[in-house]
Amino acid sequence: MVLAVAATTATYVVVSGDSLSRIAARNGTTVQALVDANHIENPNSIAVGQVLIIPNDKAYIVQAGDTLEGIAKQLGITVERLARANGITDPNRIYVGARLEVGTDTAAFDPEVRESQTYTVRRGDTLSAIALRFATSVDRLVDTNAIKDPNLITAGTVLTVSEGAWLCPVAGATFFNDWGFPRSGGRFHTGNDLFASRGTPVLAPVGGIVRQVTGSIGGFQVNLLANDGTLYIASHLDHFGAAGAVAAGQIIGYVGDSGNAIGSRPHVHFEVHPDSGDAVNPYPVLSKACR
Length: 291
Hints:
There is one protein chain. The protein folds into 3 domains: 2-101, LysM domain (Membrane-bound Lytic Murein Transglycosylase D, Chain A, Roll), CATH 3.10.350; 117-161, Membrane-bound Lytic Murein Transglycosylase D, Chain A (Roll), CATH 3.10.350.10; 184-289, Glucose Permease (Domain IIA). Helix 1 (20-26) packs across helix 2 (31-38) and helix 3 crosses helix 4 (79-85). By secondary structure, it is an alpha+beta fold. It has helices at residues 20-26, 31-38, 68-75, 79-85, 127-133, 138-145, 283-289; strands at residues 2-4, 11-13, 51-53, 59-61, 94-96, 99-101, 117-120, 158-161, 192-195, 201-203, 208-215, 219-226, 231-240, 244-246, 251-255, 267-273. The strands form 5 sheets. Strands 9, 10, 11, 12, 13, 14, 15 and 16 form an 8-stranded antiparallel β-sheet that branches. Strands 1-5 form a two-stranded parallel sheet. Strands 2-3 form a two-stranded antiparallel sheet.
């Protein structure tokens, strides 16, 4: 199934005297690449005013009638590789106008996921005993639950318990695989948007160090550098949560519409950068952690 999104990408409008060879040379591509990207039947026949998609060797813009299998065949790679590089979990569902990464054999981002657990404190419990029971640490319990005195816990208190596994950053959020969707200014979506009510807590999916950033595009944004070197970015927050060292499950912000998302449906733009490098599609792990 191919669904449509508003397309914004590198394009060229044919003018009088143009030829595909001239357009290809001017845009750093080849005639064959232009023919393939635009489904041109006769390379010697292009029309003035015709809008051509300018391809590159690292990305492909999905067009009407495309299938993932057809795109993979055209690019000389496997469907599995193309799906893996773009976090596609349903190869029968792609979107017209979306950009697919094809230049590298990207490894899938697939950490172990687990929902956070809760535990109700019983008479006689200690944090050290609870930590031992759930294979976590006292420090993590203290940080996650904002406990002021670790030696004083009250029976009936409900604790959030999480350790070692990837947690859903926005509980109850709605989202879909909008990775690669076109954005203004020739940009493309390098994450997923998680929609939820304004003020919904945004949690650290893993432990690490949070840096708070404010900008005209991302608005109130947090950069979480995880202990394993993965960088997580959450943008368009309503306001910030904890900064500095945080534990998995700790509140680091709240859903909003800041930056260039002002007036839109409240959401968090969420990115994942393994080893602090290029972004990868977070959809596969989000679809497991936030189900």
